[in-house]
Every structure is written in structure tokens, then in C-alpha cells.
Design goal:
68% helix; mainly alpha; 206 residues; 10 helices
């Protein structure tokens, strides 16, 4: 994949959108079902014709993610510290994943199996949510410090909620992989912030 600032920003928007859903699922059962399905479906998009096709082929599907991204990268003093913490943790996990050939190979096999299961189940079916949660645990979470998700204890004790949170963390890692493939790095977040913000604003206008 060629280096592309627009794809980098789209990946960051998807990352923010997935992690916003993680935050929402952990604190309330009320999440946008369309956004949830979009993020989960991205995990099984292994042979997309273009980066945008991973997220339904239209930028509008990532509108909330772009909005969160602008809040986090822009001059707004009221940044979401929780989302920032999740973003840093996911990007760190993805860096470790990219350096582990064994984990990458195992992840690839599991995702191919997941794609085949989509012929029989919807992406939000409990069977697939459970499988995605297992993929996250077995192939990714062991690579670094466990991400501590804040939320309502009574919700986080529920198996269905745990599966959904981990499946969304897997979707966040998927976005982080796209960020790296498009040439993104932590240095971009430090030294090219204005360029990223400008690109995000343009995407929202479009």
C-alpha cells in the first residue's frame, strides 16, 4: 500500500470510532447498531479493493470517528483522556503484533476462518462475537500490557459484553494495521498533527 495521508487519517478515524464503541459498550448497552456492525465487519475484510471498502465504501460511515479524531488532535482542551489511553495502548499492541511473525500467521488463519463463518452467521451473532474475542485474546492481548477497559462493573461481568468489547478491540487493531500500512507512525502524531487535522476536516466537509 502506498503512503497516503488521507488513508492514514481514515484509519485513525476508524480507530477512534471503534474505541468510542468500546467505551460505550462498557458503560451502557445503547450503541449505534450500524456503527457496531461496520466496525466488526472490518475485521473480516481481508481482500478489500481499496482501504475505504473496509468501511463500507463511503467516508460518511466514519463520521463519528472523524469527529472524535478532531477532538483528540485539535486545539480543543477537553480531550477524552480515556480514548487517548486506549489509542496509545492499541497502537503499541499493533507495533508488537507487526514484529511477531508467529502471531501474525496465527491471526491470518483465524481471520480466514472468521470470514468463512460469515457465510452462515451475521457479524453481530454471539457465535462470531465469541470467536472474535478469542482471536483478540489468543493472537493480540498476550503481546503487551492488558488494556484496562473502564465501565460499569455489572456490565463488564457479563460474558456478552466482554465478547463485544474484545471484538471491538480487535477492530481497533485492524484500523491500527491500516494506519501503519498507509505509512503512519507515532512520529506523525507528534510532528504532523496539523496536517492530520486538516485532512480530517476536509473529510468531514466531503
Amino acid at each position: 500500500m502506498q503512503v497516503s495521508v488521507s488513508t492514514q487519517v481514515m484509519a485513525l478515524a476508524a480507530l477512534c470510532q471503534a474505541l468510542s464503541l468500546v467505551k460505550a459498550v462498557a458503560k451502557t448497552k445503547d450503541v449505534d447498531p450500524t456503527e457496531l456492525e461496520l466496525m466488526l465487519s472490518s475485521v473480516a475484510m481481508l481482500d478489500a479493493d481499496s482501504p475505504l471498502d473496509i468501511y463500507g465504501g463511503e467516508l460518511r460511515h466514519l463520521r463519528s470517528g472523524y469527529q472524535v479524531l478532531l477532538q483528540q488532535l485539535g486545539d480543543n482542551p477537553n480531550k477524552d483522556v480515556e480514548i487517548t489511553r486506549y489509542v496509545v495502548a492499541v497502537l503499541a499492541l499493533e507495533r508488537r503484533l507487526s514484529k511477531s511473525s508467529s502471531n501474525m500467521a496465527a491471526l491470518g488463519k483465524r481471520l480466514q476462518q472468521l470470514a468463512r463463518q460469515l457465510e452462515h452467521f451475521s457479524i453481530t451473532d454471539e457465535t462470531l462475537l465469541s470467536n472474535m474475542a478469542d482471536i483478540y485474546i489468543e493472537c493480540i492481548s498476550t503481546l503487551g500490557t492488558r488494556i484496562q477497559v473502564a465501565g460499569q462493573p455489572e456490565l463488564l461481568k457479563q460474558t456478552h459484553v466482554q465478547h463485544k468489547v474484545r471484538a471491538l478491540l480487535l477492530a481497533a487493531v485492524r484500523a491500527a494495521v491500516l494506519w501503519r500500512q498507509a505509512g503512519g507512525s507515532r512520529w506523525h502524531l507528534l510532528f504532523k498533527r496539523k496536517q492530520l487535522v486538516h485532512e480530517a476536516r476536509q473529510a468531514l466537509k466531503d
